TrEMBL record, chains A, B:
It comes from Streptosporangium saharense. Residues 155-178 are annotated as: Disordered. Keywords: DNA-binding, Repressor, Transcription, Transcription regulation. It holds the Pfam family TetR_N. SUPFAM superfamilies: Homeodomain-like (SSF46689), Tetracyclin repressor-like, C-terminal domain (SSF48498). One of its GO terms (molecular function) is DNA-binding transcription factor activity. GO terms for biological process: negative regulation of DNA-templated transcription; response to antibiotic. InterPro entries: Homeodomain-like_sf (IPR009057), HTH-type_TetR-like_transc_reg (IPR050109), HTH_TetR (IPR001647), Repressor_TetR_C (IPR004111), Tet_transcr_reg_TetR (IPR003012), Tet_transcr_reg_TetR-rel_C_sf (IPR036271). Residues 32-51 bind DNA. Residues 9-69 form the HTH tetR-type domain. This is AcrR family transcriptional regulator.
DNA sequence: ACCTGAACACCGTTCAAGT
DNA sequence: ACCTGAACACCGTTCAAGT
């Protein structure tokens, strides 16, 4: 019987991946340094070598991971905004276990950079207050995902599956939620428009 | 020297009040059964007599407390909706320490009842899909409070004051946030309107 | 009925030590 | 450089016991 040497060395990425899996399948309160070590086939203390600030650093990294979305600028600012709103929603929905962190922790690192890029895209398109527009769009994504995940009852039974998460498919399920999201997004984008009609007459 | 007998007996209300104070001033992660006991001048184990399911029950109670807002029905459904949106926002802003719970935990008890009341108010006003309207309004409140609290950097320094919380008053502070909120709320309410103009012609 | 004390299993983090 | 083992202070929760 061959002696087991850790096949793949520990890394920040592998730690975050494993942490997301635990949080999504068992809930944030069960995400523990020791359990995380077990999942990675390593003593919990080894994690500190890759995340020096310990659990706080882990929480920050999780929030950043699920919140730092990048989307290529499109033809119109509306399409650009639509793209990263959809991407943000998808990322948040995929990881309900860290949603509380994502909605609550101020953006840092790559998340903060992504925010700046988005603001710049809207600024280049000539929007009068691009920062405010980005805030409004972020608020929309945050709010709709929060309500959707709340409604799914995820927080009540976070121990069912190992997969990312599947909204209750029958009756008021994912398709209706998607339609609601797109509909509200359209309305918001229309509201953000520097009302061309008014200026033209 | 008179012997100190606990002056006021422990109660569910006093426990929740103290817990909110700790969460808002020090952060949710520092809200501990033992610390809570200290704040209440009692051994931690005494709390279990009033909250049998322990810390889980406490978390539920906190989410419910900050999320169960009641507002009297007004003349129009718009004014009713405006009233409880404002009340919800105020309650959430007052307690940033439990915002993560409020946005994440499915509504129970008085919170669920408040939701039903709101749906009924919109239903009585003849809105085609009152449940969806309530969801949209809730999402709006959740999202705007989330970005506002995030922006305030509260999660980065939850140890500064004992008072509920004061948004950074200078430069993009509370007044601008209020105006943004009202403006967006107007737009949303307009969008929810069963477009009278279209039906009339 | 309401609270305490001791106990148990578990947690985050440190530090010296191993390789 | 990367990981382990032992240790420390702290945590949630139980249970029998006190009043």
């Amino acid at each position: 019987m061959p002696a087991k040497r850790p096949p793949v060395p520990l890394s920040r990425e592998r730690i975050i991946e494993a942490a997301l899996h635990i949080a999504d399948s068992q809930g944030l309160r069960r995400l523990t340094m020791r359990r995380l070590g077990d999942a990675l086939q390593v003593e919990a203390m080894a994690i500190y070598h890759h995340l020096p600030r310990g659990k706080d650093a882990l929480m920050d990294a999780l929030a950043e991971h699920v919140t730092a979305v990048h989307a290529e600028p499109a033809d119109s600012w509306q399409e650009s905004a639509r793209a990263w709103c959809r991407a943000s929603r998808a990322a948040l929905r995929e990881h309900p276990g860290v949603l509380a962190l994502a909605l609550t922790k101020p953006p840092k690192g790559r998340a903060a950079i992504a925010l700046m890029e988005q603001t710049e895209q809207l600024s280049d398109a000539g929007l009068p207050d691009p920062a405010q527009a980005v805030r409004a769009l972020r608020a929309y994504v945050f709010g709709s995902v929060a309500v959707e995940v709340q409604r799914s009852g995820w927080a009540d039974s976070p121990a069912d599956g190992a997969e990312p998460w599947r909204p209750p498919s029958a009756g008021g399920g994912s398709a209706a939620a998607d339609a609601d999201f797109e509909h509200g997004l359209d309305a918001l984008l229309a509201g953000l428009n520097p009302r061309r009609t008014e200026a033209e007459r």
